[in-house]
Amino acid sequence: MKTRYWRIFGSDGKTVIMAFDHGGGGRIPVDDPGQIISEAVAGGVDAILTTYGIAKNFRREMGKAGLLLRIDAGGSALAPSWPPPKTRYAIEDALRLGADGLMCMGVVGSEQDPEYMQMAADIAAACDKWGLVAAGEFTPDTPAYSPDFASRPPEKMKVACRVAAELGLDLIKTQYIPPIEAFRTVVANTYVPIVALGGPADPDTAKVLRGVREAMDAGCRGVAMGRNVWSHPNVRGFVTAIRKIVHEDADVESALAVM
């Protein structure tokens, strides 16, 4: 097992990751990244998924939290079209920053499916060579984080997650799709850890935590949550609540109580 794996996962094999890579295309998620990171770390986040620029400038605030570096890129927020995916940095860049792992996208079934597959395979091989964790955000080619769960049936989710494992990725970030029983079949078909992404921001904290509880009951090994964390008015408390569900197997009411 890669040593850096345990900088992302706790001793129980579970993880709470704050996805803070939304500014990669030039969309600035918050005015003070350092403050958000400090609050998330104080709340007990296990790792942070972020961009090269954030990792370079706010490593002190990250403290002992694990670092997953978003290594792939499309275009900027002002690009007229989305170009084919490719890696933006070399693995030496990630090592120089002290990254524990690399994260790439994989949109399975899209027109750019072959490019995504090759990029993930290259990243998996490079990470194995250098002892880094290879992670991928893999989903079927349907509207991003669609509230219409029927657009991502278990059969498609199985393919998306299984191909990520077959390519050699160590960790898969994907959308938890209810019901619990159906998503358990996705987890059972995938032999590497799956963590649930957070999706669009939702002001209903209890609802978001219920989603975390369901994802864990379905077999996920944690969450990689972005907007619902860094846009929350109580980042520290919300991370603590998520951690209570993920690492202590708490119910939603108990998690809400710690906030």
User: What's the CATH topology label?
Assistant: TIM Barrel
Radius of gyration from CA coordinates? 17 Å
| Spatial order of the strands forming the largest sheet | 1-2-3-6-7-8-9-10
DSSP strand count? 10
| H/E element order | HEHEHHEEEHEHEHEHEHEHHH
User: What overall geometry do the principal axes of the alpha carbons give?
Assistant: globular
**Tally of discrete structural domains:** 1
- How far is the N terminus from the C terminus? 35 Å
The percent of residues in helical segments reads 40-55%
- On the 0 to 100 scale, the average pLDDT is 92
Query: For the record, what is the CATH homologous superfamily label?
Result: Aldolase class I
Work out the helix count.
12
- What does the largest sheet look like? 8 strands, parallel, barrel
The CATH architecture term is Alpha-Beta Barrel
SS strand fraction: 15-25%
Structural class determined from secondary elements? alpha/beta
Residue windows where pLDDT falls under 50 for at least 5 positions: none
Highest-level CATH class: Alpha Beta
